[in-house]
Write a structure and sequence with these properties.
Length: about 90
């Protein structure tokens, strides 16, 4: 849970803000099934603009990408692993 919260906070900090909707809508969740723990960050499918977020994240042929989710995870991998292991930030 702490690692997902950290990654979601990092993603919120990277979002270019026009209306603030995307920043507020970034959520996180962690789920444990046996020995497997899965964490997710992003905008839930039920949100009206979730579909557009994908194109904002990866870009299109007409607009460059403005990634927030991927750098939030990949640029902080060591911290996230430490949080999963229970070491703190």
């Amino acid at each position: 849970e702490a690692a997902c919260q950290f990654a979601a906070d990092q993603a919120r900090a990277r979002v270019l803000v026009r209306t603030g909707l995307t920043r507020r809508d970034i959520t996180h969740e962690a789920e444990a099934r046996g020995l497997v723990v899965e964490g997710r960050i992003g905008i839930p499918k039920g949100k009206k603009h979730a579909w557009y977020w994908y194109f904002w994240e990866v870009g299109t042929s007409r607009n460059r990408a403005h990634p927030a989710l991927r750098p939030a995870v990949f640029n902080n991998a060591a911290t996230i692993v430490r949080l999963i292991a229970g070491g703190g930030r």
